[in-house]
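User: Second chain of the day. Same drill as before.
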Amino acid sequence: MKVPRAGKACWLAPHSPMSLFDLPPDITKLEDSDEAIVVVQSEGAVALMTKAAEELFGVSSEDMVGEFVEMLVPEKKRWGHQAYRPGYLAEAAEQEMGAGPFPEAERPDGTIVPIAARLEPIRVDGDLYVAVHVTER
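Assistant: Same format as last time:
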């Protein structure tokens, strides 16, 4: 399902449906966290969102799992975000996200939310996931 974007069409195609049953336990254990966490597969698809992340971004995990994480990035920054992903993945390390001086997210209603985000790579059985720990600034 596409996440509506304030009357704008989205250029991103959805991935195939996933469920928590398809994810390794090292990833699913994050689901119960009180933190706002979005877990992203190396291809950019959202694999898991915590309840706190759903509240922060104003979207349900049902609508986001399988979609590109760029659905949470302001439209004007999506291409840039997508272009940075391969470089980060080549040398994945825990770090603060630095999309310019002020990282932002976009809610489905078009509201821009200033955020701080910490990237935490998680390797499981040769697969790379990135847990994005997000707070509203």
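The two ends are 29 Å apart (CA to CA).

User: Great, on to the next one.
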